[in-house]
Design brief:
Strand content: 5-15%
Bound molecules: zinc ion
Strand order of the largest sheet: 1-2-3
Radius of gyration: 17 Å
Number of domains: 1
Distance between the termini: 35 Å
Number of helices: 2
Shape: extended
Number of strands: 3
Order of helices and strands: EEEHH
Largest sheet: 3 strands, antiparallel
Helix content: 25-40%
Length: 95
Amino acid sequence: MKLNIENEDLTKFRGLAGVSGSGHSWPEDYADDNGKYLNQCLTCNTHFMGHKRRNVCKLCDTENQRWWESLSDEERKEHIASVAGEVNRIFGPND
Ligand SMILES: [Zn+2]
């Protein structure tokens, strides 16, 4: 669900789980063009406010950052190779 919500309409959506004051939203996006969309997190499914191109809430993004920083260089290379393999499996190898 993608809705562009103006300031005055924001209160209508405060009842939705995860929106407003939960830490899932990205208040630093609000002043930008398209910065106040109601998005749904691909990781935890919570609704959050932020730029229309965001697909992960702030809490999950922070968790992802912590996980990435906890990896060694070797583990990061293995993960990147694994993701590349998955992309090739889905979309086929790049010719
Ligand atoms: Zn999330």
